[in-house]
Design a protein that fits this description.
alpha/beta, Rossmann fold, 6 domains, 48 helices, globular, NPHP3-like_N, repeat
């Protein structure tokens, strides 16, 4: 991959140096046969046989016919390589068999004497093909002889990668137009004990001239590069048909055919008669390749493949796995050995080839399960043993490392399914249309959400229904106890989330709740359901909880902590030898630590950290004083916090509580700003009295630069080290949002979440409201300086906020919604929200004015940019699908975010006529969500919920009506209201029927109740119940499918027969003058 990136960089630099008119490619045409008296040796050494030469052109400019491109072997020649007895068959024979074609021969363009040789030749080949094909998109068939086939492979790999990285589109377009490749004598893989480099060196010796010893050595030492080329080509050639000669090579791939060529390597590509058996074979395969799918069909399919993979992918897909420590030394090797030191067989090793579908790795919290899972999953030995289980099938491997301390997507069913599907389908793009057939041949993005549980589950099972005989899948799922039912979280009440702790501090005193317990039951059922198929194996790990004991009873199992003592002793010996070389009785001390750990690897690691930090004299005292468990009020974590200086402990508590309270793991910058609180300190207010009392207003006076923000991140990282005892860590990523602060282990998070822990240390702790207003301030301050590192607004290809910036805005609004009802400092709260609006408008205008179009666009500077700067930022939410909601100002977004008291105050201070007009405008948002698309933030944070899909709080109705809103002044108000009712809240509607069965039914029922309240409010304030509304009655889109109904009739259609709305129906009956039926429903 590094070589490919270097090639792409060179191509881009080269193209920038050359003008479009000054092409380095000199195209020639040849129409005469080489005389029979020509000398092969002469042609082999002719210096001018480089680049592209058109041998036959039977096509006019356009896309008809086919381009046939032949590439010669090492030391070959673009004519002589294909020449015998006066006949150059690509020119003299192919012209009659493929009259509507263009035949191109290509000659190697430079010396072959470095590790860049293949990439250099590939660069030249691609550049020549791009130039010669500048006016056509007809399909291409490549024919490669010997090492010329490797040049073709390198060129196609480079072209495919250029499409992915977007660095050189002209070259990338060669790739999707290639429908087939014929390899004649090209080496593709190792042979027996010979490496691929040695095989290539052997093939090179069959060239027209003997290569030098230096060149052969170069080939032999290039195995890694050649293997990378081979593997990458196998990935990108799924839709390219490949033909190889049996005698010269072996090859594994999807569209691969082999055939026998009974001749030597040189004569393999020399034919002087149309009846030659070899030539007839070539004709057969060119015919077959050229009759395959058209390039535009392949390109369209490949485009959709990539769109689906992009939709499945999420940024944190490998974060948890990457953060897990690598196995120390050889401490995990025992899991993949047939016998251990005590001659016991590893049950995991036996399971790999056995028919049993589920293997459970269980253990105490911190016993090293994740490290062991990572080692087992990544080991080549695991794959080798699983290949035996497949019995010749196609083995697919995937891993999921669940992370309760991460975002929604890292601990949910959606995350599991997306991760597994992405890992399966990335190397097997041919299966994407099998998994998602309904998403081909239609618009993208789809009208409905793509990553639903139903859609993802159907895709998963479609794969194995389609090809259950060939596909064999092994999935490693780590941390089942960290799984949560995120998609049904709104079913639960507040008390269902309350943690209950084991009285005897079992399993390190970890808490549980109804929600957590039912989550564990849910993942247990999912694993057993998936494991019911004999084509799927699952290796899972978790704590030894009763729910998992029941779910996996009867399956193979390994209890990690019963095998860990030797590994822990090895680890301790390595650490002590490094810290205290020559320590007396080291072996005995290590055994003692291992014994005291009771198989808890994390405890042992933290304990040895504390031991080596002290002196040699206190080593024994320190060890004897350590608690035997991690969590709880008397555990090792508590000791680590208590060992911090007392003056740190208040701030320590606040940092932990902020991370726990955050909507999602906060970035270093957001956390640093939040920790400071929202009020400016006295000194800052004295130095800048005009800046006010908020930190955000003082920040406006600062000219931030990148170094300032790096300093803030560095300082916060040091505070995490000095104040948090190593229990919080920072993920790698860009400073503007990627450096998230997370707990170093799930047990650390559960420890920090215990109230009794902090009650024992600090009598008075920050309240939830104090934490939320600090987080609100932190997000706003982060937004203010976001542009220092990256413009928060993108102006191309469409004008919108970046998802990363909008996610900060959304989080700020979520914190505001939490405290809108009971914030003690209501003035400070309102001023913060005003600053949020101001900060975003400033960021909006600044980014637009700094934007420089990709091309000279005077219209941008004269009209477009000024017009956009006058727009309000709230109307430019980044969307994954659909158009952003139309919002004229911040109050519209505040209504959708349910900031009831803030909106009430802002309306109250307006002049009466302005207040009435604004209330009338906001009424639309209260009776109907304003957009149907989905935010682009969903791909960043799986728990992100769009503001424009829920009905706002019903209390807004009274506020707006009191402010002068009048439904009689809005003739379209009923249309908007009933459009919402029919689309989202009517049981007769297909969308509603599906949603009522989905994960969000609890939230939908709340929305339904709010919609009924909106209808009632409109009627109470003068809306006409007999107003007529035209509605669609069927599926057709013609005029006859529409009918007219009154508002009250539509209400009855939606609500009659619903017992939970019996009271509301009676009230609506009184408002409209109708008499209810005996059954409580309206009659016609």
């Amino acid at each position: 991959m590094k070589k490919i990136r270097e090639t792409l960089a060179r191509l881009t630099r080269s193209s920038s140096r050359q003008s479009r008119e000054d092409s380095s490619v000199k195209l020639e045409k040849s129409s005469q046969s080489i005389s029979s008296g020509g000398s092969i040796e002469t042609f082999a050494t002719t210096p001018d046989g480089k680049g592209a030469l058109v041998l036959y052109d039977g096509v006019s400019d356009g896309d008809g016919g086919i381009d046939i491109v032949v590439v010669h072997d090492l030391f070959g020649h673009r004519i002589a390589n294909w020449f015998q007895r006066g006949i150059c068959w690509p020119r003299d024979l192919l012209r009659d068999d493929f009259q509507v074609s263009r035949v191109i021969t290509w000659g190697w363009t430079g010396p072959f004497g470095s590790t860049n040789a293949f990439s250099d030749q590939a660069e030249s080949l691609l550049a020549d093909m791009a130039a010669i094909r500048s006016r056509t998109s007809r399909p291409i068939v490549f024919i490669g002889h010997g090492l010329g086939g490797l040049v073709i492979k390198e060129a196609l790999v480079t072209a495919a990668m250029s499409r992915i990285y977007g660095s050189h589109h002209e070259l990338g377009n060669v790739y999707p137009k290639t429908v087939g490749v014929i390899f004649l004598g090209t080496p593709h893989s190792n042979s027996g004990k010979q490496s691929l480099g040695e095989v290539v060196a052997t093939a090179a010796q069959m060239a027209a001239r003997q290569p030098s010893k230096e060149l052969l050595r170069l080939f032999r030492e290039s195995s890694e590069m050649l293997e990378n080329q081979r593997d990458t080509f196998a990935l990108i050639s799924r839709d390219i048909q490949v033909m190889i000669s049996k005698a010269a090579a072996t090859y594994e791939g999807l569209n691969v055919k082999t055939d026998e060529f009974l001749t030597n390597h040189v004569d393999l590509v020399r034919f002087d008669d149309r009846q030659d058996l070899g030539y007839r074979q070539i004709i057969k395969y060119i015919t077959k390749l050229s009759s395959g799918p058209k390039p535009y069909e392949l390109e369209a399919k490949e485009t959709r493949n990539q769109e689906i993979l992009d939709a499945l992918y999420f940024d944190s897909i490998h974060d948890r796995e990457d953060r897990i420590d690598e196995a120390y030394g050889q401490t995990c090797e025992w899991i993949l050995t047939a016998k251990d030191d005590e001659q016991r067989g590893s049950p995991f090793y036996d399971w790999l080839t056995a028919p049993d579908s589920i293997f459970w790795i269980s253990g105490k919290a911190g016993s090293g399960k994740s490290t062991l899972m990572k080692y087992a999953y990544r080991s080549e030995r695991t794959r080798q043993e699983l290949e035996e289980w497949t019995q010749g099938g196609d083995l697919l491997l995937a891993s999921v490392f669940l992370f309760e301390g991460g975002s929604h997507i890292q601990k949910s069913r959606e995350g599991i399914l997306r991760s597994v599907l992405y890992q399966i389908l990335t190397p097997r793009r041919d299966l994407i249309s099998v998994a998602f057939p309904s998403f081909f041949g239609c618009e993208w993005p789809p009208a409905s959400p793509f990553n639903t549980i139903i859609n993802l589950s159907q895709a998963f099972y479609s794969l194995f229904a389609h090809d259950s005989q060939r596909l064999k899948l092994c999935i490693f799922v780590d941390g089942l106890d960290e799984y949560r039912i995120m998609d049904r979280k709104d079913y639960y009440k507040a008390e269902d989330f309350a943690l209950v702790y084991d009285g005897d501090e079992g399993d390190a005193g970890l808490g549980s709740s109804k929600w957590i317990n039912e989550s564990h039951g849910d993942i247990g059922r999912l694993i057993t359901e998936m494991g019911s198929k004999d084509t799927i194996k699952l290796c899972v790990s978790s704590r030894e909880l009763p729910v998992f004991e029941e779910a996996f009873a009867g399956h193979s199992r390994l209890r990690v902590h019963t095998h860990s003592e030797t590994s822990i002793a090895q680890y301790c010996a390595g650490r002590l030898e490094q810290a205290v070389p020559g320590l007396p009785n080291m072996a005995a001390l290590c055994r003692e630590i291992a014994n005291k750990s009771r198989g808890d690897v994390l405890w042992a690691r933290l304990a040895i950290d504390m031991v080596v930090e002290g002196s040699l004299k206190t080593l024994r005292i320190t060890l004897d004083s350590l608690p035997n468990q991690l969590g709880g009020t008397e555990g090792l974590y508590m000791r680590m916090i208590q060992n911090l200086p007392q003056e740190y402990q208040l701030q320590t508590c606040k940092i932990f509580q902020l991370v726990l309270r955050a909507q999602e793991p906060p970035s270093l910058i957001t956390l640093a700003f939040s920790e400071e609180g929202y009020l400016a300190d006295r000194r800052a207010q004295q130095e800048n009295p005009t800046a006010g009392y908020l930190r955000v207003t003082h920040d406006r006076l600062r000219n931030w630069d990148a170094q300032d923000l790096r300093d803030i991140c560095d300082q916060m990282q040091r505070r995490l080290t000095t104040h948090c005892a190593g229990l919080l860590e920072v993920e790698s990523g860009p400073p503007e949002g990627g450096q998230r602060v997370v707990f170093m282990h799930q047990t650390a998070k559960e420890f920090a979440a215990r109230k009794d822990v902090w009650n024992k240390i600090i009598p008075k702790q920050p309240t939830p409201v104090e934490l939320d207003i600090s987080l609100l301030s932190g997000c706003i301050r982060h937004i203010q300086c976001f542009e220092v590192l990256r413009p928060p607004v993108s102006a191309w290809p469409e004008v919108r906020f970046l998802p990363e910036a909008w996610l900060l805005i959304a989080n700020a609004l979520r914190y505001a919604a939490r405290i809108d009802n009971d914030v003690p400092d209501f003035r400070g709260y309102c001023d913060l929200l005003d600053e949020l609006d101001l900060a975003n408008q400033n960021a909006w205008v600044t980014s637009l004015r700094r934007h420089v179009p990709l091309y000279d666009d005077t219209e941008w500077f004269e009209t477009k940019c000024p017009a956009l700067c006058n727009k309000h930022w709230a109307g430019y939410e980044p969307m994954e699908t659909g158009k952003p909601p139309k919002r004229k100002d911040f109050l519209a977004l505040a209504v959708q975010a349910n900031l009831v008291n803030y909106v009430a105050v802002k309306l109250k201070v307006l002049p009466e006529d302005v207040r009435r007009s604004k209330a009338q405008e906001l009424l639309d948002y209260v009776v109907s969500p304003k957009a149907e698309g989905f935010s682009a933030c969903v791909s960043l944070s799986g728990d992100y919920v769009d503001f424009h899909h829920d009905m706002p709080d019903s209390r807004f109705l009274d506020i707006l009506f009191e402010s002068g809103a009048d439904p009689k002044d809005a003739p379209k108000i009923w249309v908007k209201t009933f459009k919402t009712g029919r689309q989202y809240f009517s049981r007769q509607n297909m969308t509603m029927s599906q949603l009522m069965q989905s994960s969000s039914s609890s939230r939908l029922m709340q929305n339904r109740a709010r919609w009924v309240a909106a209808v009632k409010g409109l009627l109470m304030h003068g809306a006409d119940p007999h107003a007529t509304i035209e509605t669609r009655s069927g599926l057709r889109d013609d005029h006859s499918s529409y009918e007219t109904k009154t508002a009250i009739d539509l209400i009855r259609e939606m609500l009659e027969g619903e017992p939970e709305y019996a009271v509301e129906l009676a009230e609506l009956d009184a408002l409209t003058g109708r008499r209810p039926s005996v059954t409580g429903t309206f009659r016609s």
